[in-house]
Sequence to fold (461 residues):
Amino acid sequence: MPRYKQVPMPAARSFGLVAATSVGLFTLATFDHRSSPSVARSTIDTSNVALGMDTRRWSAKERAALFRMSLSQLPPLAPDPSNRVADDARAAELGQQLFFDTRLSGNGKVSCATCHQPALDFQDTIPQGHGMAFGGKRTMPIAGTAHSPWFFWDGRADSQWAQALGPLENPLEHGATRTLVAQEVSARYARQYTTLFGALPATKGLSPMAGPNSDSAGRAIWSRLGPARQESITRVYANVGKAIAAYERRLAFGRSRVDEWIDAERSSQSSSASMSPDEISGARLFVGKANCATCHEGVRMTDDDFHNTGVPGGRSASGVALSVDDGRATGVRKAVAGEFACTGPYSDVHSRDACAELRYADTANALSVRAFKTPSLRNVSRRAPFMDAGQFATLEEVVAHYDRAPRAPLGTTELHLLTLSAAERRQLVAFLRALDAEPVATPASLLLPPLRLSERSLARQ
Fold:
């Protein structure tokens, strides 16, 4: 919860930036406000608690920050000019099938949903995601990320479709190749694909190992295909990412008790939402003394920026210390040079004014060293363990870390000592748990593996 932002954000590209991800990284057990005794009475014994309960007595700055967080303030999702099928229902249907398809992996057992599990707010519950093997980063949730201009913890992708492509070729995640992906699309989804994107290239007889990011044998096979064939296969690969993004754009946040309470406060009306004194006190700390809203701001509770908050390095599943990476410092350079960037050959952008976030990205900012993306805190109580590599097991640990503001293992932390009392730390955690919603505001049909076309035909008979 740093006091100052890293740098002012550049003008937002036309399709992405609102009052701020990818993206949560905290969670505990689900808080059941109906049975919790904290709703009936405050656990904090303080004589002036009544003053804190009345938001009319808060400062104008605190009230403004609070009111900006209500989900009712979320604007309509802007179009993505780099993806012409982003809002095409047919692309979303195809993307949903691809999202759950384990055949788009090296061992035929890994899909996007392996780590991004719908029942768990599209994440998993382990410190680092596990596909073909353990990766080095915590799985980020998906709901609401279509509003963001950057993806991954280090922001190395600048669109949902570019993000979707990274894991497919990563040997620790899907372990696939773009040739294998193109062959599976041709074999399983040809009719849907050609309706959206046009003819598929001939891939029959090609080695599924062929790819620019494959092992040495696969790279050698790829190099012999020639530029034209490589481009045609890569075009299919890029379009797979665009279809998956069309599906992911439909995954939205649900309303929490906090949203109901804020809307009632804004309109000076009574609310059916039950907020305990601890939760309300925690909300005031969040937008005031604790400085949380400096970065976790706005309706999605993220500024979509990157910050070094002194988080220690993580540990692997076997307990081995992970390398301390430099975060955004490397990520921003990867984003600018990315093969699937908004400014690249596979983008659908046709305007020179588009891709502003990428064109004006600061690639030499010293504050980017070990800076990671500010995650959304919506549904945060569902997402333990927390931080970029699952370093903290509980929300209490997270709040304690921000309170003591330790030095960063690399680069310079933006944190400042808060000196919160034990009661204040407890109140902050109570507020964070109140942000829980059940589970995302998305039709149930989008949260399950869809029937494949062949299965639908059988079902009709």
